[in-house]
Amino acid sequence: MRGPLGIFSRVGGRQDLGRGAAFWVAFAIVALGLVAFPLFGSAFYLSNLANFFVYVPMGLGLCLLWGYGGILSFGQASFFGISGYVYGIVAQNLSLTPGASLLGVAAAILATVIVAALFGYFVFYGQVSAWIIPLLTLVLSLILETFMAQTAGYQWRIGHVLLGGYNGMTGIPSIQVGPLEFGGASIALYLLTVIAMLLGYLGLRLLVNSHFGYVVVGVRDDVERTRMLGYNVARMQVTVFALAAGLAGLSGVLYVSWGNYINPSSMGLYAATLPVIWTAVGGRSSLIAVTLSTVALKWLADSLAVRGGEYAFLIMGALLLATMLFFPAGIVVSLNRLWRRARRQAP
Amino acid sequence: MSSPVEREPLLRVEGLTKAFGGIRAVDELNLAVAAGELRCLIGPNGAGKSTLFSLLSGIHQPDAGRIVFKGEDITELSPFRRVRKGICLKFQTTRIYRGLMVGENLTIARGKVRGTNGRLEWALGVLGLAGETARPAGELSHSHQQWLEICLALATEPELLLLDEPTAGMTPEETALTADFVIKLSGQGVTILVVEHDMAFVRHIARGVTVLHYGRVFADGTLEEIEANHEVRRIYLGEQ
To answer: Considering CB atoms only, which of B79, B100, B112 is closest to A228?
Structure first.
């Protein structure tokens, strides 16, 4: 459908759950509620919520890549980390220059996308078997973690910024636009994460319901078939991989703006597995499911971490196992199917 | 008086060879297909028919020989570029997007700028798919799935259409309908090569027939010539 109304019909297209008027009314109410929350929420809650929302773009990226594109990746954490570190290096080095943090944001996301496109080029143009890609991306994350972990000491610095080894990089400035500082407990950062989450969701929903999105799904369902319809499948896969990485990069930048700090464990095994758990538990075939599960599971992990760090790891693993055994399509997606079936059977 | 350009066949295959392990599935095969031709490829199992199609469409790379399409050497070209040049393959086993709607299958196949000559709409009508766009492709009957796959290939607007066993698993009526459809499609100027086991289909088409045997062209001629050929009857048509 063309014209300005085409966008609305497309964003409500078939490639996601939630298509009726009721869904969009609920969506609008939740969106307005989130935007209005700073009027009555405390700084503590704002900061916590912002911390949860920070990860949504990364989860959505994996949802696009895995759920719609059929490519399971453990590399989202590495792109999150690359972005965080590059932002830290640029923004800290140029801290006296006006607009340094925006330059940092641009450099961080650009660097992430370039690394992902290069990595993706070799993987997808090399026609590496689909089952090896999760391993390769996991290795990418672990190599970066290992490398960054040994960067302790004064010799490991870029400009005047120390990489910091396992202790990580500290003193990273928050994003600043004019007088507005997007710091950890600020309303500005909270709103920025809400906007990133909502626009990320709507933008990807528009994308997966576009012609491009259908071809991405076609590649997932049958690579050879799609190639035989005249599509450069490798280029599409690199594009989707880089886009997913860019979204992880956005999360990385928001995270360091929130916490002013990043360390190598943000690219470690646990961090690399988390986006896969969010995506699988919610339901990788649905953007809204992954948005919900990312926020819910991040909240759950943080609540558990307060009672002792090890619990979180165990319970996340158990949750993933239980989902794979009992709700292979994901909890939100399965619940939606049950609800639709019940409604159909109702008189 | 025809110019040299017009005399150049649409497709020319020279010395094409492909071995799997020690077996030469296609063995120094030569073939020329003129524009507008409709030809059936027949031959015993393992004669190299499907391998020839996979070489023409670029799924496999030949060990030797070359493929010339519209005067251009396309031997090294990747499959998707060959589709863009105008060669499209209908796979032997049905490969449609079973989880997507019929209309969504077509959306993917049509691409962004293609789909202007109305042939696809005509084909959907003839094959009874026009009213099925909102149905999951996996729920279609077997023959409709085969037809949808032909339509997916047609959506790329091919000049050379490769049909690998288009009537496998169809009833005699459906086979006849498919044959009529292929004849009409050929009448619209699409060059078509069909690999088919079903002699009823080949007789219905009643055009040029090429017999492959041990990866080479064994015989080549009209349907009558091929059916009258004793050697062909011995190796393929089952005469003792």
So the answer is: B79
In terms of DSSP H, where are the helices of chain A?
4-11, 21-36, 43-53, 56-62, 76-93, 100-125, 133-149, 187-208, 211-221, 223-227, 233-259, 269-282, 287-306, 309-326, 331-345
Across the A:B interface, residue pairs with CB atoms under 8 Å apart total: 58
Percent of chain B with pLDDT over 90: 75
Looking at the structure of chain A, the number of domains it has is 1
Instruction: Flag if B57 and A226 touch (Cβ within 8 Å).
Output: no
At A114-138, the pLDDT tens digits run 999 999 999 999 989 889 999 999 9
Listed in sequence order, the residues at least 6 apart from B148 whose beta carbon sits closer than 8 Å to its beta carbon are: B96, B102, B105, B129, B137, B140
Whose tokens are 């700084």? That residue is: A43
Q: How far apart are CA B170 and CA B200, in angstroms?
A: 12
Asked if the Cβ–Cβ distance from A229 to B97 is below 8 Å, we say no
pTM score of the predicted model: 0.92
Of A214, A229, A232, Cβ closest to residue B152: A229
Query: What residues of chain A lie within 8 A of the CB of B96, using their CB?
Result: 225
pLDDT tens sequence across B143-182:
999 999 999 999 999 999 999 999 988 999 999 999 999 9
**What is this model's ipTM?**
0.90
The C-alpha atoms of residue A56 and residue A290 are separated, in whole angstroms, by 8
pLDDT digits (tens, 9 = 90+) for A315-333: 888 999 999 999 999 999 9
For the stretch B36-58, what's the b/e string if a residue is b when 16 or more beta carbons lie within 10 angstroms of its beta carbon?
ebbbbbbbbeebbbbbbbbbbbb
